[in-house]
Amino acid sequence: MNALKKILSSLIISGAVILLIGLYYLIIKAGIPYQDPTTEMQIQYAVNMGIGNVLSLTGFCMTVLAAVIRIILWVIGRKK
Known about the structure:
Low-confidence stretches: none
Radius of gyration: 18 Å
Mean pLDDT: 92
Helix content: over 70%
Number of helices: 2
Order of helices and strands: HH
Shape: rod-shaped
Number of strands: 0
Strand content: under 5%
């Protein structure tokens, strides 16, 4: 049971890190789209937005899922 708690804690932390990296791509790298971009700028913006979306969603799901499982295990452990 203790090893499972360590694994879930690691998943929560790694999910939060992935989420922060995804937010970095969304906010800093992609940012606000250019007013009159060239084709190359449009492609780079789309790539950065895609990377940011995937990383943010993955990190959020990892963090929430691991936290919910950890809370469920904590509640079950208290009842015993």
